Input
Amino acid sequence: MRLLVVEDEPRMAAALAKGLRAEGFVVDIENDGPGGLEAARFGGYDAVVLDIMLPGLSGYSVVRTLREEQNWVPVLMLSAKDGDYDQADGLDYGADDYLTKPFSFVVLLARLRALVRRGATPRATVLEVGGLRLEPSSHRVEVDGEPVDLSRREFLVLDHLMRRHPAVVTRESLLDDVWGSESVHGNVAEVYIGYLRRKLGRDRIETIRGVGYRLRS
Output
């Protein structure tokens, strides 16, 4: 599998490349935004590890440009910023996942493998199921035309349910897609489904006993 690492700190880039190559990945390195964008456009990579603070062009601009060009290569963003809004910005611009420096290499590896398994999946610009409307680019959710304020994690859970509608989403699928390799309590998926039911309406998410959850149309 081929990975692109876009990182302007030479020691960090070299350490990432060394660790990933030891795990069997073929790794290319770019040290600035314009070079990273050009390589991601035409390199045929399975995933991109993308720093936010880059010379020439920020990681935000790189991933946003790729998505505007309908390039859906999986992108894992890296940043020294750890605020919720910074993470939300990265995801809103089109990143698939986000890690804050310093991070565990084991966690990075698990997140990358999850992204590679998922593949370069095209994403609708607006998702609609029944009276629910979700706009990934603006992080906006409406219920029957009325805006609803969701936390980042609630938004990701709803996004997962809407993209897979009308299929049933298993608890394991939710945990893998939304929490990745994070250490979480066993009932965290149920907790967030409860949060969404309170904000969207209790009858909008159906529990399929022993299987998972499904949005009602």
Q: What stands out?
A: The domain at 127-215 is CATH 1.10.10.10 (Arc Repressor Mutant, subunit A). The mean pLDDT is 86.
